[in-house]
């Protein structure tokens, strides 16, 4: 490369660099545009979801959450559940006030040692304790205790066990019984 | 003096800030999910069990025409035994009850106990309809079962006795009269009989 050519090349290079610098400065001067998230479609989905959930909102005074593995019987009955104390009776055990009171045998029956003339001992103690509390509460409020027991059973629950539970509840001064069922659609 | 031309003001579109609304919506979703009813529940009100071992109420002598229906359904492993006014239907002549034979045999004989549809609920409902026509003011039915009968069978027996199309929810709320297709909708669970 001759010295003239070298000089020409340097001049071109400088001009190119100067142009690049100018362009970079121009880019810096322009404000960055804010990215806008399209909210309308998201709002549509969420609104529909909220309306659907509001429609299926449980309006019953008692929310029944079945225990694991429990299959509540189906029925064509349509009467709504009234306020009361739920007892969950499955072929695995009896749960009352979030406590497993009785564990069933492999046959799905109450251990015969716990039952005396249809009365299930540990269940009677729990029923009586809660009934006393509820009665006291009703007395303080100046109302009468309704004594309603909501029996949330299992499709396979044997009649003999069901009768024992109802009898035990009766002895603990529960006066009204309700079987919780799933409405047949 | 020359009038200065008025500058045209371009109308700016102001977008609503949806973020606070979205925040509330997203908080509402888990709250509603928690209170959501996944399966709609219903209730069957039953009267407490009565035991045959308990002393029975004194029976008053009544005239034949004043006798109540006193409908009883006993769920056996072989079918339904139906009794009215102390007389089992289908019992041998001269006998009030025949424990060996059901009034309504199984619809699916030989099916396992866990098969809830082995009972003839339609025939039971037809029988309840017959009795209702004879005793229109009677609404109670005593239901009992053998020890191994599952709860689902008991519930469907109650449904059949009440009438599968019977909807008494509005009646219980006091907004409607009892529908005509409701037969015996007040079950009494009895234990230790049969």
Protein model, in words:
- The complex is a heterodimer of chains A (185) and B (194).
- With 185 residues, chain A is α/β, with parallel strands linked by helices.
- Chain A has 2 domains: 1-30; 74-183, no CATH class.
- Chain A is 42% helix and 18% strand.
- Chain B has a domain at 67-191.
- In chain B, strands 1, 2, 3, 4, 5, 6 and 7 form a 7-stranded mixed β-sheet that branches.
- The longest helix of chain B is centred in the N-terminal third of the chain and has 16 residues, at 19-34.
- The radius of gyration of chain B is 30 Å and the shape is elongated.
- At the A-B interface, α2, β1, α4 and β8 of A face α1, β1, α3 and α4 of B.
List its traits.
heterodimer, A: 185 residues, alpha/beta, 2 domains, 6-stranded mixed sheet, two-stranded antiparallel sheet, 42% helix, B: 194 residues, 7-stranded mixed sheet, 4 helices, 24% helix
Q: Percent of residues of chain A in beta strands? A: 15-25%
| Portion in beta strands of chain B | 15-25%
Uncertain parts of chain A: none
Number of domains of chain A: 2
Q: Using DSSP, what is the number of strands of chain A?
A: 8
Helix % of chain B is: 10-25%
